[in-house]
Amino acid sequence: MRTKTMRVGALALGIATLVMVLPGASATAAAAAAAAAAAAAAAAAGLNPNQIVNTTGTAQSVAQTLVGSGVAISNVQYTGATAAKGTFSFNDPTVLGMSSGIVLSTGDANTVVGPNTSDSYSTDWGLPEDAQLTALSGYQTYDAAVLSFDFVPTSNQVAFQYVFGSDEYPEFVNTQYNDVFGFWVTDNAGNTTNCAQVRQGAGGPASPSVPVTVNNINQSNPTQSPAPPAMRPDIFRPNYFNATGPSATDLELEGITKVLTCQAAVTPGVVNHLRLGIADSSDGIYDSAVFLKATSLVSNNNPTAGIGLDPSAGAAPLAVSASVEGHDPNGAPLSYSINWGDAPPRAPRRFRWTPQWRTTPTNTRATTPPPSRSPTAPTRAPPATRPW
Ligand SMILES: [Ca+2]
Ligand SMILES: [Ca+2]
Ligand SMILES: [Ca+2]
Fold first, then answer.
1. Ligand that lies nearest to the alpha carbon of residue 125, given by its number in the listed order
2. Which end of the chain is less enclosed by CB atoms within 10 A, N or C?
3. Among all ligands shown, which has an atom nearest to the Cα of 123?
4. CA 336, CA 387: separation in Å to the nearest integer?
5. Same domain, 87 and 152
6. How far is the CA of 52 from the centre of ligand 2 (A)?
């Protein structure tokens, strides 16, 4: 049995303090203690009135909750503890960044609801590994929960939104307890990709993609010396246990990702396959969970783009600013480039360029020749990839 030494120490101090206060207690302190105890008991029983998790549905009904436009599913299968899968509905959409969907857990999915009552929330089902998740984690996995189904998409891509979270944070970041989640898409030709990945470095299109795991998304580990580098802290939301008050978010998990998007190429019009799984790594304790937004599995929403010219006409000299804006409804990043076309360059094709040799507004030329110019229009680096 491993322990979260730093957090357990803090918790023990909190309990000791509480014992000293209660006998002579002020009404306020006693009421606060009672409220905290009630909240902890309610959360343990999954009774947060603003957060509902239902683990009684069938695999078919759970999977169907994920399905949006352009996707039809069939042949739903599930492996794992019955209570490790379910649907959720949260009144406050800011808790997860989504208000409803499906949840898969390495423990009891009912216990993901807030408040955060323990830094080491666990249900050890004693269930075995999933080989694909073990390969992905790099460590032996336990308590695997895997939901899979066939689907027919209407276009050549599928996408959905999800959030990953864990009670392994932060004390078991950068360790072998690397709880892991995978979303494998297999197209009709048998090509399998895991789209539950993020760039290892933020804003780096050439940065390698890595799986969504505790070790790959975090804000470092304060119990290690020296502390390891934070990994993608830009997409991590800490929710560390607070023995003296509420945690940042009304959720049991110690940390969650921001809303991420899976996107994968598929074969339209025929049967493809999705395999969605999560597992503990190296032992079966300290829960992790993944939340998938309801109806977000879509296939028929194509990206769109447009170009704006400002101004599009006006008195000479005309300096035009061109802006290209694209949008992918699935949240996938887009790339941009500007092609000047095949027409030969002409002097009026000026782009944010102001003639320097004009001496008067009446177009009187100076006696000195104009500075030489490139026969082609100036080039500009494409705009940075936009986050939508
Ligand atoms: Ca917790
Ligand atoms: Ca477990
Ligand atoms: Ca775990």
1. 2
2. N
3. 2
4. 13
5. yes
6. 21
DSSP state of 67: B
Which residue would you say has higher pLDDT here, 336 or 8? 336
Q: Model confidence at 359, in pLDDT bands (50, 70, 90)?
A: very low
- Torsion angles phi and psi, residue 56, rounded to 5: -95, -5
Closest ligand to residue 243's CA: 1
Q: 288 C-alpha to center of ligand 3: Å?
A: 6
- Could you give the residue ranges of the DSSP H alpha helices within 22-162? 27-44, 59-66, 131-137
Closest ligand, as measured to the CA of 143? 2
- The answer to whether position 298 is within a domain reads no
Residues 238 and 136 in one domain: yes
Ligand 2 centre and the CA of 85: distance in Å? 13
Looking at every residue in the chain, the average pLDDT score rounds to 82
295 CA from centroid of ligand 3 (Å): 28
Give the domain extent around 95: 5-293
Regarding pTM above 0.85, the answer is no
Contact 84, 106 (CB under 8 A): yes
What is the pLDDT, as a whole number, of residue 168?
A: 98
